[in-house]
Amino acid sequence: MNAYTIRLDGSESTGPAGIYLVWTYGWSDLEVEEHDSLEDALSWFAVMSDSVHTSPKCIEGPAGIVPEREVEAWVAATGKRSRARQSAYRDTLAGQVRHVVELRFPGSDAAADFDECDDLGDALSIVGRINRRCRVRVVSKVFDLHRGWVPERVVIDWDQAAREAA
Fold first, then answer.
1. Which of 64, 82, 111, 149 has its CA 20 to 30 A from that of 92?
2. How many other CB atoms are found less than 10 A from the CB of residue 4?
3. Three-class SS state of 23
4. Cβ-based neighbour number of residue 103 at 10 Å
5. Are the CB atoms for 73 and 87 separated by under 8 Å?
6. For position 112, what pLDDT does the model report?
7. By the 8 A CB rule, do 32 and 22 touch?
8. What pTM value is reported for the model?
9. Residue 37 burial class via C-beta count within 10 angstroms: exposed 0-12, middle 13-18, buried 19 and up
10. 38-49 vs 68-93: helix axis angle to the nearest 10?
11. Which H or E element spans position 86?
């Protein structure tokens, strides 16, 4: 009889009380991480399954090794639910507009996103607060289901800010 109850429907998986150890290989070293419950150990195992730096090996609980097939099924079911939630969230973003405040690195054309806002007034307020007029740009982007955040228009451009400062 299996002492572990692995639930694939999103409800909590359970097992005997005690310490659960998640064994992984990280780079070239064997590593172990302690967890207080089977659910926490499963969650950590799933995180490690997505990592490019580690390879999860097994979960060892108070009643021995948690069956590998059940752990893999839990990780797969959790991933499927997560992808479904992400897809539903993406659907709600379609057509939304965000205003991205970009800031140039001093003396360079390299730039990074400083902040993003749903309201243009908030973005313009940030421009005034950071006070880097010739190095700031505000771009309005709209979310497209197939392409992600797509620039729609430049509200404040680098050149425009430089001309206004002159």
1. 111
2. 21
3. strand
4. 17
5. no
6. 94
7. yes
8. 0.57
9. middle
10. 70
11. helix 68-93
